[in-house]
Every structure is written in structure tokens, then in C-alpha cells.
């Protein structure tokens, strides 16, 4: 018998996933599927409709009266039981998971309702009355820095919460001596990878032990566990955090659920029962987390041959309304990689982190990568064009040289392995780049708009837990103590029948970790794939874990699977020693295959794996002297290369660095501006591939999300801070029709720093693809300033130029008011068969107002010029109850009066001003009116497409009713009649 | 459809995966909530509750329907099928399910039940559906993990498998 040393070769094969059978038959166990205690109540969250406002009062009394409601909790109630969240930079600022005196973004939690069912809780939610005093908003990161910008956090004295400047090499001299200098300004938009499963939390509080038990579809990093425990004012061992067996995607986003873990924990404590919260889609889109938007100016010092000698970065990072953990990590995750795939010795960086009236940001696939590769790779494209050098050639001349690995970048990353030039050439050859050039030639000859884009990127993986401290000065770091490393953990247990179980602190959301771990461990222990069972649930009270635990920064293959291999090695060595005694051979002679342990020189001399594996349970006395048991082995592994930032701010921000080279051909429809991706080739060097199908799955998945980011997706805000993309019909995720299948190529340079030679691969295309597509658009259109997402409207601007003013301008166009809110204006008149004085008296009479205000339920006269009403209004299918305040001013009896009103309700808010003039004509009164109105809140997030028309109809209805109530006459405001006709009389 | 009072529960009787079910439901109860939280059939997932993502797709009288856009009261007397019904036996996957595993047509699996119900309805009426038809039917579903290519491949593999089975049976 000869032994095939290639073994079963489990690692590197596309095994069917062990996860799939349960998921395909509807037996997955996601957070909302888990059993709960019978007394579990449901929590819902009242959210701010305003981007920036003082909370004047919150009245929860009516909500508490609803049968089935157990508690209504406000920000102050939460604050009484918690402490402000830890902020990652030194700044005089509080950071609460729920608003207290002020709201700072649309969707910010304002109150919590706990009730028997979600339906009842939402009923009660509508009965909470909150009075707001609106404040000016800041929506743009550059505007946030201006002197006259509204302040989000007065204690900070500025909207800039952190600023640092860095200098590596001698950038000043390099710029002074360079033949050319080129610069690019980029506004990178906000988007999110939005998993299909939203956040969920189940929380309990045990008053006897003052301990919380929280299950959440949290993904890590578990450094956040410390943030949660500190916020809840309990030691970590009284904050048990568990994760469900399955999680419906995350892509970084589910890191942000920790805020709700705190809120649900408090709600459980206050209501005295377990509390469950499942986020809805509107909440997820407007208030979970998103990637940062960033304003960047990037300048390069360039030699005549296209070689870059220095880069100067000026980055303004918009982290939204609060700097929540782990921010400003998005800005620093790439800090070691600010030179991309290029050898550039001199770098200057200015980083500013600003706060605006938008949702706080957090982890998101690609994490900081898209924001730097977009300017860097757009600039490479520009440099080539400006110098008249082939674009590929400029990339080639700047790549890190093949013989330079491991290569230390100017800003401190240690690029572990690779041959970038060879990978690039392989991509061009195997991806048929020449054929693509020919396609472009033919397309252009046929009069089509066709462009080719290129992008090169280094994809970092396995984050250094110390990189975030680069945001602090060296002095602050010295004071706080060094932070570094990234502890990965794996446990292998063997039961009394010899069955093997693997546990890792990894928390997958669909990546197939259980399959790969079974491959790695089964191969190493020479047992069948199916003999290994893997558990990836995490329970901080029972499992081995550390702050780096969790699933982020593409760390699984490189760190976690590698650590499982190390644990398997240790168990194997001990099993070999135990078996050696039983086989009567040297341990070095012992081998493992097909469930048997045997003498390599005489395979017939063998014993079953299970028998040897069970020895530690049944006959511990048989273990050889000095050999430990094999019941359980836990390995913690942290790579030595992940050092703390140096005194000069050099930081090896990640352990592994994959290489990507992408190219694509796109065609633009010259009539509609729609983009078609004709061909996309993506070359990856992710080190050793453990499971080819999963690597391809990661590449395709990231690619699809990147196509969305490039062409469709943006978290859009109105100028008043309204969130405008609150449904999946507004926030456009690409479907099967928009995502082409990319050509995926590989070049394998195993990492010398990881146990299996693997590197991360999950995020690369989120970094490379948006700019590759943008470069292709630039090539097709000749445009230089290109802003994502490249919607047909934006492309239209590039190919047609600015839209010309209409030759028949409409009288009513949306205006911008001084507050920046989007305004609707209109005017009209109605003839009323009554005297001026009669009409005047009607406008001051509550009974008349009740009859003519659309949907009014009761008008209360607060004073002679102040009325209050409850009204029900519908916009499309979204019908809601609002509280209206109407004030009269500038009264000239009986000629003119100004009505200013505001409405406030669960679905949103509106405000408006109308001037009414009364003119007598032939015994009748001509009522003239003009108005200006604005609408925001939930109704603006989900009903934006219907809003303009609906607002006009409602305002028109008021005057129509006034005319009718006065005894005849019809309004003849041209717009209103047209609208009524348009809406088929439904108004 | 009769007028239903908001403050009382109404009797709803229907067939769920071949078994007769009778429940009392408020008139505002969504079918998705009824299935998941009243009947414990959690295989049907809820992703957006406004009919765009497709994760909650079930079959009502054979046609794919968003369970989040239909009220429980509306399925009185209907035949409802969910992902739990696709498996011929507890130990066996249907050709469509097996193709998803074989082609890696899922990652997190959250959107998968809805996609399976849509494809199952398509392949029941159009067992020889073309790639274009499959894409058109899949266009009503959002998947954030796979980039769709392996889902299309799985559907095409299932068509092939069904074709072989029919040939064998014929």
C-alpha cells in the first residue's frame, strides 16, 4: 500500500456547504425565528422626523393608557440607567443611543414602547406627543466646517470632532521638485450594503444578579461588547451577548445593532420582562448605519514619465450626527494603504472628522476602501491622460516592484506578498484585454459611447485592532497604552465517542465558515469531512472570545480558519503521541487518514481515530507521560506583524494584502444615459484559496454591491435633512437584470504571515469596482468630474451638458427657503358668495375652520389668533393623524391675513405660510391666496414621489372648502383644477 | 370581500402546505406575521414589508404572492404553500433545492425561500423555462450576497434535472 501524500485534499475544494440543507428547507434559525419566553414583549422605537431640533416636551400619557403596553421609555429614562457611549477620540461630547434634549438626525430614537405585540406597540407609538423646536441643519461635510454652520454638539465648539495631520518621507520637497502636479476633488456618496435581514435583539435583565442577557444578530468586532457593558454600567461578565445560529447578511452593517442591544436591555429592565425588537426596513435604511461620505482632495507630485513621487491627501470624513464606536475607523482602516498598490515614498495626509445631521456611520463592506481608491484610481487615469501616456503604463510604472515583498509602505503597512505586475499581465492576457480594445474601436466606429476603465487596488484584511489609535496623537497613545494585534480563536473538542466539534468566535452571516472549518480540521485529523461538526454561534458567557472576535475585515480565511488549523495541529500532535504508544512506534512515524491513525512505514499497523481520540475521556491514565489530554484545545492566535502605531504614526493597519486588478468595458445608451456593463474582468490575488466556489461567491457578491454603489445606490437627504430613500423602491439595489457575471481570475501568492497562506477576499470589489466603472464612464464621455452614483440623470449631464431652461417655464417650481428645506409654493383665487366681513369672520371661527381644514377632527381655539387641530391626511396609501397648529398674523381686517401652520404626526411633519387677501367684487368676495409649504419626516422618506402633488391638493382643498362653506363659488386657481383633473377627481 | 371590524378577530380557514389550518386573526394581521408568529412557520422571511425585496414570497393557490402585502383575512379558503412544503421528504431536497446547493446559489439564505417559491411556481407551469424567463422572474427578488449568477445557474440546472426526470418517467 502506498500512501498518497496529497491526502483527501479537502482544503482547496469546493465542497457542498454544510449550511445549505437547513437554509433550503426553511429550517434556518435567524434571530426572529428563535424561541422566546412566553412573557416576551415587543419593543418599537419612536424616531425623530427632524434632522435637527430641540425636544421641547414628550407626552407619553396616552401611549401608556393603551391596553397591552408595559412601558414607554424616553431618553432621560435610558440615561438614568446607562452612561454615555465611549467615543473613539478625545473630545468633549456625549454620545447617547437615544436622543435626550436634542435630535440630530432623521430617525434618531426618541422613545421606546414595550407592549404585548408589535401591532399594539406601534398603535401606542402614534399616541406619543413630542414637541420640537427646529434648528438649522448641516448636511454637507465641507459646509459643516464653515464658521457660520449650525453646531450639532455645542460642547465641541465646532462640528469637527477630530483632526490630525501626518507626514511620511519628505512630501514638501517631492512636490517642490516634481515636474508635474495633478489634483482631483471627489465627493464620495453615502451608501450601505443593506442586508436583506434587518437588525434584531432579544434582551433580558436579571435584577437578582444585576445582569443582562442579550441575543442580537451582531457581527462583531467584540470590542463593542466592552462599549455595551460600559454603557449599561455592568462588568463584562454581567453582559452576556449571544448570537443566533444564522444571520441574514451583514456586510459590516450589523455591527451597528449594538446601539439597540443597549436600548432593548434597558427596556427589558424597565418593563420587567424579556423584550424583543425587530427593526423594519424604513428604520434600517434611515437609521441603522451607512458607510461614510467623504470629501477628498488628492494631489500627486509626478515625474515626466508618470512616476508618482508624493501624494497629498486632504480628507473630510462625514460620520453623521454622533461619532459611534468604532468610528472614526472608516477613515483609519486604510491608513497603511494610502498609496494603494503603488510604491510612493512621500505622503502627506490631513484628516478631519466632521459631524452632520445624518445617521451615524459604521462598518460597511470595503470599509474606507472605496473612499480612497475612488480618488486614487481616478487620479491615475487623469495623470496618464494629462501626460499622454498609456493608462496601463502609468499603473505599471508605479506598482510596488515584484521583488520588494514584504514591502513596507510609506504610511506603515507591511504588504505581505504578491507579484502585482505579473498578476496584472495575467489579467490582461487571460481576460482578453486586446479584444476589449477592439470592441471599443468597433463600438465607437459605429457611433456608440463606449469606454474602458481600469483599477488597481490592494485589498487589506485582518485588521490590526490598534489602527484606530492612529486617530490619537503619539502622546495621547502613550498615555492610553498601546493597542495592537487581532486575537483569533478556535476550539476543537473531542467527545467520548471520538466525534470532533469545532467552535470559533467568528459569527458568519452566510459566508460558509462551518464548511471551511470542517474542511480544514477534517483534513488535518485525517477524518471524513462529515465527521466534523462546527458551531459558529457565540456566547460571551461560555465561549472563548476576545475583542477581535467576529466577522469583519475579511479575517475569516486568513485568521480564523488558520487558528483552527493551529488547534488541529496541537490535537493531532497529542493524538500521535497517544497512538504511538498503542502502535508501538515513534510519534513522528504516525499518520492520519480516512478515520484511522497508523504507522506511516507500515500502514497495516493502525488503530481507529475514534478509539485514540476517546482515550482522554475513558482512560486518562493511559496517556503517555507528559502528554496532555485531547478533550478540548483552544488556540488564541495574534500575528506579530500587527504592531501598535509607531511614534511617527506608521501603522500596519492590516495583516494581509491581496491584490486586485480590474478592467471593464461599458456602453452608454446615448438616448437615456443608461449604462450597460459590457464586460468586467476582475483579477484577485487572495493568497491560498481554501474553497474556490466561496471565493467566487465573495467576489461576485462584492461586485454586485459595487455595481449598485457605482450606478444606483445613495442614501439621499433633502436640504432640510429629510431622509429621501426610505424604501427599496427609492434606495435601488441592483437586481439580476443589472448585474453582469464578471470574469474572475486568480493569481496565488500565499501569505507568509497566516497559518494557511490565505488572505481575505470579501471586500476587494467594493473598493475597485466603483472607480473602475467611473473610469470607463470617463473614457466614454471624456468627462473629468464624475460623481457616484452614475444614474442616467448624472450620465445625461455628462453627455448632454447642463439642461437648458425650459422655453415655457412653469410658474411653480420648488424653491429653497432660508432654512434650506425643499418648499412647495402655489397661488390661486376663489370667488365666494359672501361679503368680505363674512369671509373674514369665518376664518377666525373654530367651527368654520373645523369644517374647511381637510381632515380636521376638532379645532381648539387657543387664543384669538392661535388654533390647534387634529387632522387626518393621506398621501397616496400613507394615511396618518397629525396635530396642527395654526396662527394668524399681519391681520388687516377685513382685507388680508397671514396663516402660518405646522403639522406634526407619526408619519412626518409639514409647515407652511399662506397669505390670504379678500377683495370685494359685485357683492361677492374674491379670495386670493398664495402659500409656501414644506414637508418632512417619514412621509418624505417613503412617499417622496407622491409628495408634491399631494401637498398642493391638500392646500387647495382648504380654499376650495372655504369657498364652498361660504355658500358657493369655485376656486379657479389654475393649478388646482389641473391637479384635480389629473387625479381623476380623487382629491 | 365582506367588511371586517377592526376591533374583533376573524376566523380564517385555509390550507397551509396541504394541512387544514384555522386561526383567529385581526383584520390588520399580515399573512407574513400570521405564518411566522402565529403558526411558527418561520421559513418564510420578512425583508422589507413593502413588497420590493421578495424574501416573503409564498404561493397562494399556486401563484407567487408577497406575504407582506396580503392580509391574513384574504387567504380564507385558499391553498398556501411555503418553502417548508418544497421538500419531498425530510431527508431529501427537491431538484430545485439540490441545484441551489450544488451551484452555491445561496450564502446567508435569507432571500432564498422567496426565490425558491417564485422559481418553483415558474417551473411548475413552465418546466422548460428559458434563461430569460428565469431572469425576469428573479428580477422581483433582491439578493445581497451572491450577485445572482449562481442563482441563475441553479435555476437552469434545476430545469435540466426536471427535464431528465420527465424523460425518464416518460
- Tally of helical segments of chain A: 25
Q: What portion of the residues of chain A fall into strands of 2 or more residues?
A: 25-35%
Task: Determine Rg of chain B (CA atoms, Å).
Answer: 17 Å
**Element-level helix/strand string of chain B:** EEHEEEHHHH
How many DSSP-defined strands of chain B?
5
List the quaternary state of the chains: heterodimer
Taken from the alpha-carbon principal axes, the silhouette of chain A is globular
Distance between the termini of chain B: 44 Å
What ranges of chain B have pLDDT less than 50 throughout 5 or more consecutive residues? none
Radius of gyration of chain A over all CA atoms, rounded: 32 Å
**What would the CATH topology of the largest domain in chain A be?**
Aldehyde Oxidoreductase, domain 4
Q: Enter the CATH topology name of the largest domain in chain B.
A: DNA polymerase, domain 1
The CATH level-2 architecture of the largest domain in chain A is identified as: 2-Layer Sandwich
Give the biggest beta sheet of chain B.
5 strands, mixed
Distance between the termini of chain A: 87 Å
Count every helix of chain B, treating DSSP H or I runs of 4 or more residues as helices.
5
Which strand order spans the largest sheet of chain A, edge to edge or round the barrel? 29-30-36-35-34-33-32-31
Helix content of chain A: 25-40%
- How many domains would you count in the coordinates of chain B? 2
Structural class of chain B: alpha+beta
Most residues in contact, chain pair and counts: A-B, 52 and 53 residues
